[in-house]
């Protein structure tokens, strides 16, 4: 099943938020009987499968369910694999929500996916539009004026449209139940030669569309595919094991709020098998659209009866050369990617090709069959 955490020499304790004993968390574990949602309060993990057999259902029962469940012991001593903390939720993502990422997408487009052509285009674009993009609010009259000027200069792009126009880019990142969790392998297409991780904060919304918590995510991106054509977004984004989430969902409460998301510093490290190391960060206070505005646009003409997870985008776009000068960064098989914030913990995954990653075989039919065999599909209140 996606998300088996046995693949990395790491411990759960090393991936927990700094204040994990104080927060309220939801996650999923793999028990001998099958996947089960857990609730962590005051540092103690509780199996919630008899209260709500899926995370989607558990989130609808909060806060009433916070006092229930079977105690499993302190979270840092839990000896069961962590899975991705979402199950039935749709997995959505927002793109080009930072000025820097907008510039990088225009570079991909103009380079037609050729990494060797990117450096010269990058310097010219940053000189012409970098400061202007950072200075305007999306959808504002100033943004419209900038658009007109860029069209006149021949610099307009579909990526700038979603960066400073009225409508955010919102797309479906991964099928239900296909995401992987902390410690799992994360996949890139075997035929991609220019790709990178996208370290992001992911909001978790319930069926009513309210943001009720957050987790970390890696929205793997294939820059060569999307650069050749934006119509290849599906191939660039949705591949086997190409989306990781975790380690846990931190629920909003009096101590952890949406403002913690707005002000978070998302750190990234990549350690390559050849000794290469890359470090970077994404400052959420540089986002062009407020996270709750992105939630609003996701909901504007759609409903999500099982809730949804929403990637908020990233400021991070690695341009540091890894091999040949001028070719920038791309993943290698064996890269260990770690995404972290003090309040959400650390999400660690090892890069493989999507062909070599553990195949996704545990879908909705398998889950419902398992829950039925465990007699968990009856309403506990009935």
From TrEMBL:
UniProt-recorded Gene Ontology molecular function terms: hydrolase activity; metal ion binding
Domain Fumarylacetoacetase-like C-terminal: 169-352
Any Pfam family matching the protein: FAA_hydrolase
SUPFAM superfamilies, per the entry: FAH
The organism's place on the tree of life at top rank: Bacteria
Gene Ontology BP, a term: small molecule metabolic process
Keyword terms of this UniProt record: Hydrolase, Metal-binding
Family per similarity comment: Belongs to the FAH family.
Name of this chain's protein: Fumarylacetoacetate hydrolase
Organism: Sphingobium cupriresistens LL01
